[in-house]
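Service request form, structural biology core

Requester: graduate student, group of Dr. S.
Request type: structure prediction, single chain
Budget code: on file
Notes: please return the result as structure tokens.

Sequence provided:
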Amino acid sequence: MVTVNGHETTGVVGQSITEFLTKRDAPLANIVVERNGEIVHRADFDHTLVEKNDKLELISFVGGG
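Core staff response, request fulfilled:
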């Protein structure tokens, strides 16, 4: 089980962060991913895998005025 923004999620273990975000239609250019309390650098998205019991926080930035 993986927790994403406080919600339990299944079927994502083994996916890279990039694959996980792409399947969620997340805005890759404007998102910060925190994994188990640590920021995942964008350069590491392709080779950082989601593991069992991970806690992910996804923060996206939206412009406006």
